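Researcher: Good morning. I'm working through a list of sequences from a screen, and I'd like to move beyond sequence-only analysis. For each chain I'm collecting a predicted structure so we can compare shapes side by side. This is the next one on the list. No need for commentary yet; just the structure.
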Amino acid sequence: MDPLTHALAGALTASFSGNPMSITDPIFLGTVLGSMAPDLDIIYQTKGDVAYLKNHRGFSHSFIGFAAVSAGIAGFLSLLFPETAFLTILLWTFLGALTHGFLDFLNSYGAKLFWPLSKKKQNLGILTIFDPVLIFIMGAGLAGQVFSPMANTIGTICITGYLLFRIYMRIKAAVVVKRRYPNYKKVVVIPSVISIWNWHFLLENDNNITVGEIRFLSWAMKIRRSYRKQINHPVVQAALKSKLGRLFKDFTPIFHVSVQRKDDSHLVSFIDLRYFIRDDFMHHATGILNEEFQLMEGIFQPYNKNRKIKIAG
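Model: Good morning. Structure tokens for this chain:
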């Protein structure tokens, strides 16, 4: 989620402490900082896009990471505000960090909450990266504190209702898609990148993968792409075991791989099927393998095809 949403979630959580909403209050400050701190893994960006995308929402977004960053923040704040007990600051800071993990769990990118026991990104897939409705409710709950001490409670109830509604939207969209396409074995529904009313769906059977979009209530559907599966192709299998393939598999759980002959080599294309915007998917990768199925050249293309990062074989 975006930084504003995380900060508002932390502030709304801190409002239940009864302490003033002020940057001079260690409880409020700790909770808000805790709600934003896990995204400090942006420091990996100094090592390049690959390092950042590989490590983003990893350790810092796990329960162990939440505890670690909370302890660091609480320790620092307890030095600045010695009149407030360290454990009290730690508790509220940790609650703030938990809101961060919870919100990231709700979108399709997910977070490695159980690292190091599991490196799988956990996600519910009901929120877009930026949700204006959620921001409005949080902001209203905080602003309403001026008029009523119950505003934060009312805001929290509204947030819960909205999230339940989003779950209903996803389930209903999946039901409609399954009815329209009953011959597909697997149906995955996740939020669209550009609209809170649209849902992205993926249909899969033994031979094909189809990606489309459905609009809530009108149930209008549009097929975006359809691919023939080549996952069992020996070149594809070799590409998936390469450094480029391992990176891409770790980056996304929903992808397509294709191969085509190119002179005396094999061109392998990876596509992340989660995010479709401006008539194309957001993340790609390309690998060239020789006759022995060894990776000669690997290129990771995050965000758009023109952004090319070389990956050693």
